[in-house]
């Protein structure tokens, strides 16, 4: 069995340098973020229509600039329908400074495979392909073609920006919506405390089951780690999958100032483990330095408010305990409690 | 009438060069000579032999620099085509029936993006009830997808339409569907002349995309367009497709000269001189139909036929010209719109009504659904009935009324319980009940 290391992908221990700022000047230049580089690509520029505090756009900006750096600007991007597409290309404006193609909601992995096949046929394999979608476009409607892309080992990095529901259409449940979350299609009603337990898909695990060269999870709370995982992904040829947790202030019913904090709490409570896997085997996990109870993460979001009403109003400490058990399971299964 | 309208049956032209080969194989070899760079493939009968052959041609190196990709679905196949075409490669795939419907969302998208993909449709019925045999309800269901649709009358046409399809698609930035009757053509072995590589190379220049995904010149493709310009986008697409009505005949003439065969036409008349009753059809039924027209002519009946090769764009002017002398127009359709009538007929009526109107009466005959053979005998009866004025405005050729009665559907108001399909099949197999 492969030895699993405990580290962030960047290898940077921010608590030792005194700041979580990704451009930290106390770091050697090569360890600083792509975003800290004045020569960065600025692949997604300002003027787009994303909401204040949008986790997805933050994630996309870091992912794409890191991918542009890793490929020396030789990148083609395929985008599924969804928030990221809608906010970025109200024609004739476009926020993209990269060759960018949007086709449909459910086919971004296949379109990306097609671009990669064309580039291979043309002898331009130095140009790399990145596909991106939200959780709806990845976990649900795009699952079949994503699996096809993975099993054929097509040379595509596919990135899922997971905000845990269909936010673009008004916050409906997806296969990535967590248990107990209130959405427009899992409303809270007597006897119905939000989204059901025991449902949903673990797509990073599904991607790993295809034994593709590289699978990783990342979060907008640790942007340097996110960048490092994109850079690592670009060192492989073949299918790669990156699943990024991107809080949505609208859908999660939280202030837009809390995006980063929520992403961090998701990881620190154990609900969203950060790891890397190569060829189907886990190779590294980011340990939790200070575990927080899920209570702290859930309470900060309106979509879980019904769990914390007083007993008479139907508060559900039993369900909070079930969610805590899920977090504890992740910590046990992924070994997140190991030494940093 | 112009000389071309009186031109003889192309099958009666001097025996073509070529060899005995299966239609699918000949189409695959022709497609290979068009040098596609990306071919995503998903199997579905009766299209499979085409992609099997392309897979083999890629592996043996006869088709060079081509990525043949085994995909997980037809939706995936067309989506790969979209990505590959947008990245500047000539792209091809083939499908049938349910597969075509599974691609439907991507078909509209490819057309909207102006990607010149070429698709062969081996025409097959659409379920339920599941049926693998030939009719044309699959491609007709995609009538409004924004794709040019060409229908092959035989396997020689099926081959010759492919270089034309690539050339037309790439000139106009409109994708093209080449439709050939499943099994009837795809699995028929006959003498076919596959165009030589040097001829296809002379006719079809390398693909020069209108726009391309290039890191050296980044652009955004597939942006959102709102109410302020969407109508205009569609207007332009309409105009672009209509250009095919001019370009297709020109290109077909040029191609015809190169291969030494009569040019394929948008629509073509057969023995229209003095024809008062004219039968319009698409696809493989034309051969049988023209034979029956010949017989009827020998018996002194004033009948003729029109072969409709290009259904999208609809060659209204050409059809008006061909049908100018007709009193009765009988449209033989291998698909229909449940609850309405024919699909081709209403368009034809609208075309004939344009002033100066062609005042022919029109009749729709639904024939050959789900693989039911359209026999010479059935067509002979149809011709006789039509000439004698005994054809209804809308009818089904060879409808088995006896079976319907035995299964309890004798009158229009009859609706026995249970599954229609299973009820009919059980009566079909039961010994005939006494009357």
TrEMBL record, chain A:
A GO molecular function held by the record: magnesium ion binding
Residues making up the signal peptide according to the UniProt record: none
Domain Thiamine pyrophosphate enzyme TPP-binding residues, every copy: 81-244
Keywords: Oxidoreductase
Keyword Hydrolase: no
CDD domains, A to Z: TPP_PFOR_porB_like
Protein origin, superkingdom: Bacteria
InterPro entries the record matches: PorB-like (IPR051479), THDP-binding (IPR029061), TPP_enzyme_TPP-bd (IPR011766)
PANTHER family xref list: PYRUVATE SYNTHASE SUBUNIT PORB
Official protein name in the record: Thiamine pyrophosphate enzyme TPP-binding domain-containing protein
Taxonomy of the source species: Bacteria, Bacillati, Actinomycetota, Actinomycetes, Catenulisporales
Automatic annotation (TrEMBL), chain B:
Occurrences of domain Pyruvate flavodoxin/ferredoxin oxidoreductase pyrimidine binding (ranges): 32-246
GO molecular function per UniProt: magnesium ion binding; oxidoreductase activity
Disordered: annotated span: 1-21, 410-435
Stored InterPro entries: PFOR_II, Pyruvate:ferred/Flavod_OxRd, Pyrv_Fd/Flavodoxin_OxRdtase_N, THDP-binding, Transketo_C/PFOR_II
Top-rank taxon, per record: Bacteria
GO biological process, one term: response to oxidative stress
The Pyruvate:ferredoxin oxidoreductase core domain, residue ranges: 275-377
The keyword Oxidoreductase is assigned to this record: yes
Alphabetized SUPFAM superfamilies for the sequence: Thiamin diphosphate-binding fold (THDP-binding), TK C-terminal domain-like
Oxidoreductase in keyword set: yes
Family, similarity comment: Belongs to the pyruvate:ferredoxin/flavodoxin oxidoreductase family.
Name the UniProt record assigns to this protein: Pyruvate ferredoxin oxidoreductase
Organism in which the protein naturally occurs: Actinocrinis puniceicyclus
